[in-house]
Amino acid sequence: MPRYILVNRRAHKFSTEAKHASRAQVATTLARLEGSVKVLADKDPKDDLARRVVVFDADPAAVAKIQASLSPDAILEPLILRSLHRRPVLPMGFNNVSPALDAAANASASQYHVTITAGGQALSGIEVIFYFRGPGSSVTDRTVHTNDQGIASVRVPHGATVAMVEPIPESGFWIMLVDAPPSGSTIDCLPIAKAGAGGAGWWHKAMSVDVNNPNRGNGIKVGVIDTGCGPHPNLAHVNLVGAFVDGNVLPGSQATDVAQHGTHTSGIIGARPTKSGDYAGMAAGCELFHARVFKGEGPQDGPSTADLINAIDSLSRDHGCDLINMSLGGGPPSEAEEDCIRDAVERGTLCVCSAGNDDAAIEFPAAYPECAAVSAIGQLGWAPAGTFSASNRPQESSKMGENNLFLAAFSCFGPTLACAAPGVGIVSTVPSNGHGPDVYMEMDGTSMASPAACGVLADILSQDAHYNALPRDATRTTAARSLLAQHCLPFGLPVKFEGRGLPEL
Amino acid sequence: MRYLVTTRRKLIRPGNEPTTALAAVGSFPGVRVVSYADPNTVTIDTDEQTAERLRNALSATHFVEPEIRRGLH
Fold first, then answer.
1. From the CA of A143, how many Å to the nearest CA of chain B?
2. Nearest residue on chain B to A444, judged by CA atoms?
3. pTM of the predicted structure, to 2 decimals
4. ipTM value of the model?
5. A99-189 sits in which CATH class?
6. What confidence tens digit (pLDDT) does each residue in A38-84 have?
């Protein structure tokens, strides 16, 4: 059955009475749907002025009947799942698509469809990105969702061909990237392997993290600034400090994830497995804080420097974080932002930041000298052929290092990199809202590399008596930075690609 | 245009209370305060000329710069 979302309208509801009346329409609508829905999630805040959000599976006919007479105070629509694999550039393998394959894809005229399955079962409601090559090699893309039978249909623009198709499963399966499959074909998403004993993935092994030690990171306070965190049972211990949006500060209850990215990065640092097969965080024993700064996943939803400043101030000043991870960036430098980061440094806080995904120079804030910038690496053999992750292997031999490690094709780089860390095919937590009790996705990006480095650094700091005896001032930050450098092992790439190397315990 | 006005953090220390960014911009004509959670970090709307005047007047104690937005990696 298709999945829907039901919420009460809040915009322009200024009085208490109007908010109450709007909220009541959710219950009224649900009651009218009784018997034809399966509720998957019901965010029913105790604050009766807050928005209620219900996610459910339902018979489309029943929903259509209700929608015909729906109160204007209620919003009922198909649930749309977005992807946070936002790439300013096309998939790295895009330019390798052969003209012959293009021709095959376009042979069936302008209507084109593929069926998406996982383990032989149709995947309904998932996002599928179609990449088109037009006249003069111009490139466009379009995202659609699969129907109940797992079919994604798209009209090919006039004069264009389908060059690649990228289905994005909600959880448990790899994101695939297929070169020009013929219309009518089936793409089967491969299952993601469960974590090894104790919750290990290749990134734990590459960084020598002992996942059987639950105390790793103990005593270290780590802040994350991202899209929000949870809900996820393995992140129930995370302290949600607030949402810093449009210059305002909202309470911690507003810091749950508005996308998936922040739950993923938080899980890389501090997820605590609750059952066999769960992936563990690098520093599961650390004290983890999360500040939401994104409004959503849209291109206009990013934080302003004011929001970042407020979040950094809160984590550093109010919560005494030793480390702050920022898997975000872009845009010009900001004196005010750098001033704030410098101030955090003087309070003993080191900011660990992702370098960026544009295969170009390191972006801000990672490019500030006060921050530790992290590039992304992958390991040959982890991502199966045909997956999006596999396409992030570089073409250049100069980016292939020792121990089967490589600089991800998308990773930004430069001489001021602090280190490199795993950022290809990283499996971590995503919000479980409506998608089962515990959900995992694999993601690629320096967004994943930065928390991997940050988590391992928390482990390193936790074990260092000298560091822990230092006052909360710049000497503490300098020591953290120094320990990070000391624990890095080069793996054969130029400094501009790997910095000091891969941090290892 | 939207600008961010912040107090230089090195000036904010126990026993030293500099003029907040909010107070500093409050007396400037042509400035509209958009939001602030902390009076030392204030988002304003103003025109380029006024922003330049603010920058010149406050450079020793405050930063005045166009608002920048960051994205996910």
1. 19
2. B73
3. 0.80
4. 0.77
5. mainly beta
6. 887 666 757 676 666 667 888 898 999 898 889 888 888 765 332 23
